[in-house]
Write a structure and sequence with these properties.
Order of helices and strands: EHEHEEHEHEHEHHEEEHHH
Number of strands: 10
Helix content: 25-40%
Structural class: alpha/beta
Shape: globular
Distance between the termini: 45 Å
Radius of gyration: 18 Å
Strand order of the largest sheet: 1-10-9-8-7-6-5-2-3-4
Length: 292
């Protein structure tokens, strides 16, 4: 039974002084080195989240590619592909091959924004993961699909970006013995994050409305922690998945300096949340112009 974080623990706290300037300094400032970031959105995905994530990726000088549920086709969604039902096979989408082409041409695929729990999505996600090498950024809504196919992510590269509730859920799905010690504070969360990262060999990011914590299994025992103030959890999720996927896409060696890149993403998020008088994309643009 796990009661406290293993030792030694090294916490790197990112506040208002940018710790890893090279991450922003060396990244592309024009579209010549832009890569594709693919978003997979289910029919219950909120339109604002879709548009915000799409715009944030573009502001970060990468290309947004959007694969959206067919039900969103009348909702002013800038999708490259709307998933069409296959009238000959109700368990598949008619344009799966087009989806595969987009994913294969992407640096990262975000799975996803409110994915549906259905056989069609299960089969699509399994095909994407088993048939491509594109790294996955796995969100809360991917967990039901992972639960149905326990070994799905075993031989694939990717990152978990989860809230605390989903973090505990994933630990339970992985049959990891986790107990939270009363009064342990942040050490409780560090323990679970480290256990998951080490056991699944994937970096883990956990977010809430006041904090982002990250851990890289390649640097076990070293955590990134960034605090901020906001009440909009959906915007936090949107910023983390969009900004982090872009910073990871900047380098093909992202697994080696994941902690530095995740801390830099959290730094940008912290700066954006300091003002509330503009849209997310405009606030991020202003922050990038200041620090890049």
């Amino acid at each position: 039974m796990l009661d406290s974080a293993p030792t030694p623990v090294n916490i790197v706290r990112q506040q208002d002084e940018l710790l890893f300037r090279n991450i922003l300094f060396e990244r592309p400032i024009n579209r010549l080195r832009a890569r594709n970031i693919t978003l997979l959105a289910g029919r219950h995905a909120k339109l604002k989240q879709i548009h915000d994530a799409y715009q944030l990726i573009n502001i970060m000088n990468h290309h947004s590619r959007l694969i959206a549920a067919h039900a969103l086709r009348t909702r002013d969604v800038p999708a490259d592909v709307f998933l069409k039902p296959d009238i000959k096979n109700e368990l598949h989408f008619a344009n799966t091959e087009q989806v595969m082409e987009i994913v294969n041409d992407s640096a990262f695929v975000i799975m996803g924004l409110e994915l549906e729990i259905s056989s069609k999505y299960q089969i699509l996600v399994e095909k994407v993961i088993s048939s491509t090498q594109t790294p996955i950024l796995a969100t809360n809504s991917l967990l039901p699909i992972v639960k149905t196919s326990p070994g799905l992510l075993k031989n694939h590269k990717g990152v978990f970006v989860l809230d605390t509730k989903s973090l505990i859920r994933l630990a339970n799905m992985a049959n990891l013995a986790v107990s939270l010690k009363a009064g342990a504070g942040i050490n409780n969360k560090l323990s679970v994050i480290r256990l998951l990262a080490d056991s699944l060999s994937w970096p883990v990011v956990c977010y809430e409305t006041s904090q982002v914590i990250s851990c890289n299994p390649a640097q076990s025992g070293r955590f990134g922690v960034t605090n901020f103030k906001t009440t909009n959890k959906l915007e936090v999720e949107t910023m983390v998945v969009a900004i982090l996927s872009c910073l990871l896409a900047d380098s093909r060696l992202w697994q080696h300096d994941f902690l530095e890149r995740s801390l830099t993403a959290a730094f940008l998020l912290r700066q954006v949340t300091k003002t509330n008088n503009s849209s997310l994309d405009k606030k991020l643009q202003a922050v990038l112009e200041k620090y890049q």
